[in-house]
Design goal:
By secondary structure, the protein is mainly alpha-helical. It folds into two domains: 1-99, Leucine-rich Repeat Variant; 114-190, no CATH class. It has helices at 2-16, 22-30, 33-41, 46-59, 63-71, 74-85, 89-99, 103-111, 114-126, 129-146, 150-158, 161-171, 177-188. The chain is globular.
Length: 190
């Protein structure tokens, strides 16, 4: 399809562009481009989704872009997307780590069911731990920021993250266990 190819080519060009520039942000915001990119993430096209995530990951180096993604509801879009098809988890987590620097983002994830979705995702990825080792490590980094909120710690425990952590610790390699053990230590402080 010509539209798909054009979109992927445009995303590749955006990926090469300096998105740290204030002019680039203004153009993106004025043209609703960020909303379009968030819509691309929800599509079932692997290449389109990955290229979009690469652009958004770069864009999040600029805090104005990051805030605009947050303002447009991008947190839940990103979580829903990575939980749906497990595509682009590393890039999605990188974006989430930038978004979670906003304290309100931690509350949004809790209120809109993002914590339970991420715990379910961890449990699903644990089924093929060898292949998903790095993905799991990235998700645990997200949980470390999420758990800066006391309420989020309690929600994590309520949704059974303890069981998932124990299952993963028993099977994961040593080089990926640091963030997992750090999260476990934080949760044990409750």
């Amino acid at each position: 399809n010509g539209g798909r190819c054009t979109a992927i080519l445009a995303l590749a060009l955006l990926h090469d562009h300096n998105l740290q520039d204030r002019g680039a942000f203004s153009a993106f915001k004025d043209s609703s481009t960020i909303s379009v990119l968030l819509n691309f993430i929800e599509m079932y096209d692997r290449d389109l989704k990955l290229n979009t995530l690469y652009v958004l990951e770069d864009a999040c180096q600029n805090s104005a872009f990051t805030y605009e993604i947050f303002r447009l509801g991008g947190i839940i879009t990103i979580i829903n997307s990575m939980c749906l098809d497990h595509i682009g988890i590393q890039e999605s987590c990188s974006i989430l780590l930038k978004l979670l620097l906003f304290r309100r983002a931690r509350r949004v994830i809790r209120r809109f069911g993002g914590i339970s979705k991420l715990i379910t995702l961890l449990d699903e990825l644990n089924e093929n731990l060898i292949e998903n080792n790095q993905r799991i490590s990235h998700i645990f980094q997200v949980f470390l920021l999420l758990c800066k909120s006391e309420k989020n710690k309690y929600v994590c425990i309520r949704y059974g993250i303890g069981k998932v952590i124990v299952k993963i610790i028993l099977n994961i390699s040593n080089n990926s266990s640091t963030s997992i053990i750090s999260l476990f230590a934080i949760l044990l402080q409750i």
